[in-house]
């Protein structure tokens, strides 16, 4: 695992909002109707398919917010590779609380584990090359910090966290500012000395323009491995080389072999499949 746990202070508002959405106006009327008040439960979070687990802190928090009497013992922490049948955690306590929190806990756990697993798949695909797998800002609203955490759990690294921590000049910025050189110069005049600038280029001609005025990083968009290799040669260590576009486990090895420093993929966060983890009753 390459990620430090997120502070509970960051997690609680998100989990609390999800629980309130699920509880609606009358609470869990199903569980309240059929489960005795004093019933106790021992359950286990169990993997149904292989992958990398992420999001256990959120799942545990969902159970505890519903009922502080629920205990969560983690058997396989975030970052652990799972096989079908692996017990991820043991949940004990008041049965009503366990059942009420179950769906919210599994929603967070399954989604973030899916992001971590997808990231780990790409990381494995480029093993042996220097390229690192990177996420983007294509995240689900309200979940960015969580999804980017899951990317780190899966062995990837984060791109900028928002619009305010780095300059990333895209094609529409270039069009609006009148060209590659003018847009880089305008950005440099406006930012602080600690802020890095990256520019997206579609062609080698644009790349050469950007290099004439100096740039921290270049986003090489939708280039073939052959063109990427030529771009890396032109950059010659003067900027970070990032490849993006049509990134899959099948295409990533050739892209990494071109010599780029980063490979970014938006689908890691906006389209990753949920990892199937279930809650099994133990008694």
From TrEMBL:
One Pfam family cited in the UniProt record for this chain: QRPTase_C
GO biological process: NAD+ biosynthetic process; quinolinate catabolic process
EC primary class: transferase
Pathway: Cofactor biosynthesis; NAD(+) biosynthesis; nicotinate D-ribonucleotide from quinolinate: step 1/1
A GO term from the CC aspect: cytoplasm
Quinolinate phosphoribosyl transferase N-terminal domain: residues covered: 28-113
Catalyzed chemical reaction(s): nicotinate beta-D-ribonucleotide + CO2 + diphosphate = quinolinate + 5-phospho-alpha-D-ribose 1-diphosphate + 2 H(+)
Key word Translocase present: no
Occurrences of domain Quinolinate phosphoribosyl transferase C-terminal (ranges): 115-280
Keywords: Glycosyltransferase, Pyridine nucleotide biosynthesis, Transferase
Any one GO molecular function term: nicotinate-nucleotide diphosphorylase (carboxylating) activity
E.C. number: 2.4.2.19
UniProt cross-references to InterPro entries, sorted A to Z: Aldolase_TIM, NadC, NadC/ModD, Nicotinate_pribotase-like_C, Quinolinate_PRibosylTase_N_sf, Quinolinate_PRibosylTrfase_C, Quinolinate_PRibosylTrfase_N
UniProt record similarity statement: Belongs to the NadC/ModD family.
Function statement: Involved in the catabolism of quinolinic acid (QA).
Subunit structure: Hexamer formed by 3 homodimers.
Protein name: Probable nicotinate-nucleotide pyrophosphorylase [carboxylating]
Gene source species: Enhydrobacter aerosaccus
Taxonomic lineage from the root: Bacteria, Pseudomonadati, Pseudomonadota, Alphaproteobacteria, Hyphomicrobiales
């Amino acid at each position: 695992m390459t990620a430090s746990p997120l502070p509970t202070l960051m997690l609680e508002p998100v989990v609390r909002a999800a629980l309130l959405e699920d509880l609606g106006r009358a609470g869990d009327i199903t569980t309240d109707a059929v489960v005795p008040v004093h019933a106790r439960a021992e359950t286990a979070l169990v993997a149904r398919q292989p992958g990398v687990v992420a999001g256990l802190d959120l799942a545990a928090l969902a159970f505890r917010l519903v009922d502080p009497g629920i205990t969560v013992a983690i058997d396989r922490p975030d970052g652990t590779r799972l096989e079908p049948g692996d017990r991820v955690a043991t949940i004990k306590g008041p049965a009503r609380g366990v059942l009420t929190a179950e769906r919210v806990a599994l929603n967070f756990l399954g989604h973030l584990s899916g992001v971590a697993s997808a990231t780990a798949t790409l990381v494995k695909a480029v093993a042996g090359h220097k390229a690192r797998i990177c996420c983007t800002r294509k995240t689900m609203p309200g979940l960015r910090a969580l999804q980017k955490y899951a990317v780190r759990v899966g062995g990837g690294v984060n791109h900028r966290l928002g619009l305010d921590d780095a300059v990333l000049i895209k094609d529409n910025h270039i069009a609006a500012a009148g060209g590659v050189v003018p847009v880089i110069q305008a950005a440099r005049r406006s930012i602080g000395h600690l802020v890095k600038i990256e520019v997206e280029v579609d062609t080698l001609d644009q790349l050469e323009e950007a290099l004439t005025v100096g740039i921290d990083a270049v986003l090489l968009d939708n280039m073939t491995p052959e063109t990427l290799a030529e771009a890396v040669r032109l950059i010659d260590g003067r900027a970070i080389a990032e490849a993006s576009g049509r990134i899959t486990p099948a295409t990533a090895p050739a892209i990494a072999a071109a010599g780029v420093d980063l490979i970014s993929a938006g689908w890691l966060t906006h389209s990753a499949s949920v990892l199937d983890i279930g809650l099994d009753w133990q008694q």
